[in-house]
Amino acid sequence: MDDELEKLKRRKLLELQRRLLKKPEQAEKREDPSPREVLSRYFVGRAWEVYNAARAQFPTVMPQIEKALVEAMRAGRIKGRIDGESLFYFLRQIGLPVRLRTTIRFKEHGELKTLEQKIRESR
Question: Which residue from 50, 69, 73, 118 has the least number of CB within 10 angstroms?
Answer without folding.
Answer: 118
